[in-house]
């Protein structure tokens, strides 16, 4: 292959968004552990804010900028060998995995839950739980490569987003 062909393939590659992002208008997620909410930002505006559950302790849900690297429908729960789609599966109906702490997107994620009463609380082992019907909507709109910023802040989502060039 010529260098030109390789360069073109790199630009058109589906993993290209894993580079410099967020860029203006790119999808962006912000999780605020203080309020137990996640904001979906698209086209430089906050499209939706959802209530979530986060880590039982502040340290369990890792702060910082991460990248969505894995998505799965009806995810398999490896820790307890529970098939996707099972009502016993604590991961619910969707998994949006991100690369926190140098992981591969299979350790930390935004996911559904079979415990909807946990939403709004600090109860997880580190993941971000959402109601299944809400994570399904988010799953359909968030591409691989989307940045997710996790913080504990008194600032509103608009202020946080502007700081990270998401608005």
TrEMBL record:
Pathway: Cell wall biogenesis; peptidoglycan biosynthesis
GO molecular function, one term: transferase activity
PROSITE patterns in the record: LD_TPASE (PS52029)
InterPro entries linked: LD-transpeptidase, LD_TPept_cat_dom, Transpep_catalytic_dom
The keyword Transferase belongs to this UniProt entry's keyword annotation: yes
Keyword Cell wall biogenesis/degradation appears in the UniProt entry: yes
Limits of the L,D-TPase catalytic domain: 27-151
Highest taxon in the source lineage: Bacteria
Keyword list, A-Z: Cell shape, Cell wall biogenesis/degradation, Peptidoglycan synthesis, Transferase
E.C. code: 2.-.-.-
Matches recorded under Gene3D superfamilies: L,D-transpeptidase catalytic domain-like
Protein name: L,D-transpeptidase
């Amino acid at each position: 292959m010529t260098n030109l062909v390789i360069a073109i393939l790199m630009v058109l590659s589906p993993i290209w968004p894993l580079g410099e992002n967020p860029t203006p208008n790119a999808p962006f997620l912000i999780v605020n552990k203080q309020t137990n909410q996640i904001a979906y930002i698209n086209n430089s505006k906050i499209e939706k804010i959802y209530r979530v559950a986060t880590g039982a302790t502040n340290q369990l849900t890792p702060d910082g900028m991460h990248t969505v690297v894995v998505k799965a429908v009806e995810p398999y729960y490896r820790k307890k060998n529970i098939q996707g789609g099972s009502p016993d599966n604590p991961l619910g109906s969707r998994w949006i995995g991100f690369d926190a702490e140098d992981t591969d997107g299979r350790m930390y994620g935004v996911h559904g839950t079979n415990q909807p009463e946990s939403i709004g609380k600090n109860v997880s082992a580190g993941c971000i739980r959402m109601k299944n019907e809400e994570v399904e909507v988010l799953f359909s709109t968030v591409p691989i490569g989307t940045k997710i910023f996790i913080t504990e802040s008194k600032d509103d989502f608009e202020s946080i987003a502007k700081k990270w060039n998401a608005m």
